[in-house]
Amino acid sequence: MIRYQITDGTFARDPKPWFAKLRSDVDYIQIRERDLNARDLAALTRRVLNATSVPVLVNDRIDIAIACGAAGVHLRADSNSPARIKELAPLIVSVAIHNEGDLEHIGGADFAILAPVFHPRSKPDTRPPLGLETLHRVATASSVPVIALGGITDQNALSCIQAGAAGVAGITLWSS
């Protein structure tokens, strides 16, 4: 099972609490700090890379990922083509998806992050939860592994895997 942990948007201000929540069993860390300028995002990425051996993906910034030596990028659903990113650099590419139709745009990705499966615990989200049936349909139809995101807890992580997810992701990362 893939375990994928995401920074919470406040990480740059004070990373110590986030590092305290970092699980030892995660396979990937996604730096999702949308409010940072390029210089600050690069400095933060280097700091995380120096603090962990876990592969780090930078949210939607291939330039920062390459410049800092990160393992890859996570692309928003409306971002660049994963195949195009792979042409530019040998990076791990994850891509956000929110419905079955988004599967048309994942060519070249290493895996897809489907959200929100449940009501997110870390932030308000106006989108209705997709649920386990949609997760199953998307995971079955996908050409790449699908990771479940949104409201993942110790109590529902296994149900995501049973529905076909290759793993789980989150900011609070399935803590009770």
List keywords for this structure.
30% helix, alpha/beta, 8-stranded parallel beta barrel, TIM Barrel, 6 helices, globular, 176 residues
| Form type | globular
State Rg: 15 Å
Largest beta sheet: strand ordering: 1-2-3-4-5-6-7-8
CATH class: Alpha Beta
Describe this structure in words.
With 176 residues, the protein is an alpha/beta fold. It has a single domain, classed as Aldolase class I (TIM Barrel, Alpha-Beta Barrel). It contains 6 helices and 8 strands. Strands 1-2-3-4-5-6-7-8 form an 8-stranded parallel beta barrel, surrounded by 4 helices. α2 (38-51) crosses α3 (62-68). The chain is globular, with a radius of gyration of 15 Å. It starts with a strand and ends in a 6-residue tail after the last strand.
What is the secondary structure topology, with strand pairs?
Blueprint: E1 2-6, H1 15-21, E2 28-31, H2 38-51, E3 56-59, H3 62-68, E4 72-75, H4 82-88, E5 92-97, E6 111-114, H5 131-141, E7 146-149, H6 157-162, E8 167-170
Helix pairs in contact: 2-3
